[in-house]
User: What shape does this take?
Amino acid sequence: MTTGQIVSAVGHLCLLLWIVIGDWLFSPEKMPEVTVAEVSLMNSSEFDELVKASPAPAPSEPVKEKELVEPSAKPVVTDPVEPPPAVEDIPEDVPVLDAFQPIETPNPVAPIADTEQPIPVAPSDVKPKPRPLDRVAAVPVDSSTDAPDVADVATPEASDEAAPDAPVVEKEPPAAPEEATTQIVTEAVETEDNAPQLPAMASLPPRSRPKNLIKPEKPLKEEVASAKPASKKARDDLVADAIAAAVADAATEETTDAGEANAPSGPPMTGAETDAMRVAVQACWNVGALSMEALRTTVVVGFSVNQNGKPDAASIHLVSSDGGSDVSTGQAFEAARRAIIRCGSKGFPLPKDKYEQWKEIELVFDPNGMRMR
Amino acid sequence: MSLFRTLAPVLALAVGFFLGGSIQSSAQQGPLRITISDGVIEPLPFAVPQFIPENGASSDYATQITQVIAADLSGTGLFREIPASAYISRVSNFDAPVAYEDWKAINAQALITGAVSTSGNKIFVKFRLFDVFSGQQMGEGLQFAGTLATWRRMAHKVSDAVYSRITGEGPYFDSRVVFVSESGPKNQRQKRLAVMDYDGANLAYLTDSSSIVLAPRFSPTSNQILFTSYESGFPRIYLMDIGSMRVQALAQQKGTMTFAPRFSPDGRKVVFSLERGGNSDIYQLDIGSGQTRQLTNAPSIETAPSFSPDGSQIVFESDRSGTQQIYVMSAAGGDAVRISGGAGRYSTPVWSPQGDYIAFTKQNAGRFHIGVMRADGSEERLLTASFLDEGPTWAPNGRVIMFTRETAGVGGRPSLFAVDISGRNLRQVMTDGPASDPAWSPLLP
Assistant: This one.
């Protein structure tokens, strides 16, 4: 036998084996069973008789409107009562009526999660709140326009779920300042008495790196990690829950925004915005006349800011201090107060659409890095 | 369905970010908190309009007192005077309300107003200090009274009050400095003790030029001075009473030399070096009883002792390790701990009045430095560098150090310099001629 014949024989043998037992070994994934409906045939005369026998519809317009209203009202009343967990999660101090209201609206979302079909659900309801992107880009969002659409979706359960996560994500903005501060300089300002020129300073090398930067966000990782551990079985449920939570959270946010029409909050302060504030203050924070002990004293100074960005001088107060005696704390506080008043006299560079974020400010003045400069 | 399963993690991730973003907007609870860890270090601008003379005879005093106050504050390097030509407001009445906006407009952060009046041989100086940007008076207004001859001291008192209120440091303007005034060529210098205000005013000589004098030191009460003189042909320590100008030799022992004396904080004891048979050790003398006690006993040279402010320890220099280094021991003597560890030679240590730092002279790589370090030797910092810097002395508040700087060459001459312990504001102290070995007095009563 030639090699070719041997190869051919083996090949054919394998083919035969596959035909015989292949279907048993490699059974294809069973397709879902098809529901079969019995169909009976009828001729045209039978069909005509059937049509004649049925009453002709004659709907009047007012009746139509009424019928349209009724179906929409129906789910509102009935559905909220159905999901028992929703009612259990409601805090006891929440009035029953209030609890019912939010539960009514999520009905469209719940069935979607149950049917494991994200396609029709998520896009339509979640899209109106592409806030994360806006925040990254630091573009203020006019929340009032979205509010009416999403407000009805709010549920107490969703807001309760989102609350524990809130501090986690809150720390995201501080991460940006850390990077930005390495590009911000105050050295140039030393030669000028007046308010800082931000663009000019931004190009200068930093004098020193701030020590007490706010912790970078780890919560975001946790947020993602929490999705990972889901088992294969629970994965679909998890996704559905996440989508539901996101939608509910968006509803909560929009509700809040809609309720504060006169006090625009907007997205949180970005790193660049807090940095601009930091630079503005440190340009006027002169520690050259402080005692050595006061240069070891960190003070936290709180104050209110008017909507025009100017600090309310009467509201400037010492929140806390660390590292010094009462005398040195007093000196450090006075230097900080001078800085706030001086550089705030023309208004701090704060985004007006985020007034809610900065109407109350606490500045931590930490001179330790400057003591022996 | 399988497509959905495949995309589920991605979807979950997206939802996570989405959720995070949405929470973020409503997450900030409480005030916005920002940390400021960088600022500016520059003199604080202040305005001191001429003090108002409240009667005709006080006009000149008002002018001069205002000038002294401005010079005191500007001389620290911590303040910058705004020239009167820039003023918008004029202060014509001591009790008139302050036009804060006018002072803000010229960026005056502190405003000092005052008035001077005289009555016979008496002079009265009163002042107020304002924080312009907060629109508040800082502390209460004060008034000082004295004889006409002490008008400079009253100006210094006003400066001290202003300085302390703004900086939080202790005062030091109302103090004096004793030093060695020098004259003649470098190889044949004549030296005599002199005393002056901290700013060089009111100079007075305490000894003549008949013998060489060195290392004067004020007593804690500023009414006595210790110094070393070669009057007998050998160095020997003496005590001078400034009021009576009476001089008394201390710790006389035949065949010995004594030098580098310094008072204890209570003024009752003196530590000094005594040389016998080629070996120098540190001794302690009880002024009242005249008894001496040996504190060190080593075959090396121990000298330049200085008490800690609480009197419990003594810092001194010794070459027991082969080169001059700084050591700390108990005031009762005993084992000493070396605290200097850098390259070069360390000498003339002096404990700060606050006890937080020790100033010293350092010689390294052909240069002399004045530096400070903690009492345990940590945080060593060199404040100056020159051909010859030596002999630091602390201001009463422990913030400023005065020392001798000598220029190089045949025509080189010593002079007095002062520097802030941050290393800023190095400046020469004006004297009539060459000067060395300064010693700062405590704050005058």
Q: What stands out?
A: Chain A has a mean pLDDT of 57.
